[in-house]
Amino acid sequence: MDQLIEKIKQYKEEIDAAVIDGAASLEEYRIKFLGTKGILKGLFGEMKSVANENKKEFGQILNDFKQHAEAKYEQFKELTSVNGDSATSSLDLTLPGDDIPVGTHHPISIVRNEIVSIFQRLGFAIAEGPEIEDDMHNFTALNLPENHPARDMQDTFYISQNPDWLLRTHTSSVQVREMEKGKLPIRIICPGRVYRNETISARAHCFFQQVEGLYIDENVSFADLKQTLYFFVQEMFGKNVKVRFRPSYFPFTEPSAEMDISCLICGGKGCNVCKHTGWVEILGCGMVHPKVLENCGIDSNKYTGFAFGMGIERITMLKYQIKDLRLFSENDVRFLKQFTSAT
Ligand code: 2U9
């Protein structure tokens, strides 16, 4: 029995020295001392080997030890739940968290994504190119004559180190690069920032964003152009919006046209936005000029194509009734946080 009493003393010391720092070590302690195959169970099993006259005394010692081991367990259990542990934490995880302010998309990005995704659904692929361009891709290939006002320093930002370099004035240069690759048919949409040497005002800025499109294949007709752009308008502005095409002129398309939609504000009755005409212009378009096709190495007898271009700021201003172009580049959070997109 003395041996057993010595053992119990050692277990007691072990319990007193035990470090329990979480649910895992608490459970380890329980299994070791209090479990069904644990030390306590084992010691109670030894009772039968104790002589009858010592049974009472040993029983007393064993019960004290049991109470000690159980009390320690309860004490640790309490501590573990106060300090917090993944399994037994007293933290209330259902409490609402702190608000993290989430940013919003810029209205230009929202509208650009919308435009691009409509054309993607029609099978157009996105094409991108450099913002610093050479004269050939930005002007010459596009049939812009030497004396065209767009080439003037007043209208275009040239790079001072090299008079052949400039900030692209439209994303048409991306289409030229795509045509040069010679892989036909071509069906691309080119979103991107463009630069023009304009005095900044409510209606003009020295940079803005465009989406241009190009479709070249055999037998592409003006009817394809009209139907494609009509589909775009219906998807973008709704089924009740009307369109009309007016003849126009661009050096890179022939014939050329501008497309109007019935005014979104007054529905065509006449208001300030449509200057009482009932119509607002949203894009320019036309059949790619045969000279442009030839300049880019495409046989104009075999292939025809249509192209169009629109300013995203203009569409965004119409959609959200924004009166001043400068708001888009001022980064005023009070302005920006008003816009949310479904995507
Ligand atoms: C190639 C051939 C033809 C793109 C076109 C327009 C008409 C047009 C303006 C809209 C408002 C520019 O942002 S804006 O100021 N664009 O009216 N753009 S046809 O024609 C091309 C493009 C590439 C190779």
Automatic annotation (TrEMBL):
UniProt KW keywords: Aminoacyl-tRNA synthetase, ATP-binding, Cytoplasm, Ligase, Magnesium, Metal-binding, Nucleotide-binding, Protein biosynthesis
Secretion signal, residue range per the UniProt entry: none
EC number(s) on file: 6.1.1.20
Name of the featured protein: Phenylalanine--tRNA ligase alpha subunit
Record-stated family: Belongs to the class-II aminoacyl-tRNA synthetase family. Phe-tRNA synthetase alpha subunit type 1 subfamily.
Sample GO molecular function, one term: phenylalanine-tRNA ligase activity
Record CDD domains: PheRS_alpha_core (cd00496)
Domain spans labelled Aminoacyl-transfer RNA synthetases class-II family profile: 111-338
Catalytic activity: tRNA(Phe) + L-phenylalanine + ATP = L-phenylalanyl-tRNA(Phe) + AMP + diphosphate + H(+)
Localization (cell): Cytoplasm
Species, as recorded: Pinibacter soli
Catalytic class of the enzyme: ligase
Organismal lineage: Bacteria, Pseudomonadati, Bacteroidota, Chitinophagia, Chitinophagales
InterPro entries the UniProt entry points to: aa-tRNA-synth_II, aa-tRNA-synth_II/BPL/LPL, Phe-tRNA-synth_IIc_asu, Phe-tRNA_ligase_II_N, Phe_tRNA_ligase_alpha1_bac, Phenylalanyl-tRNA_Synthase, tRNA-bd_arm
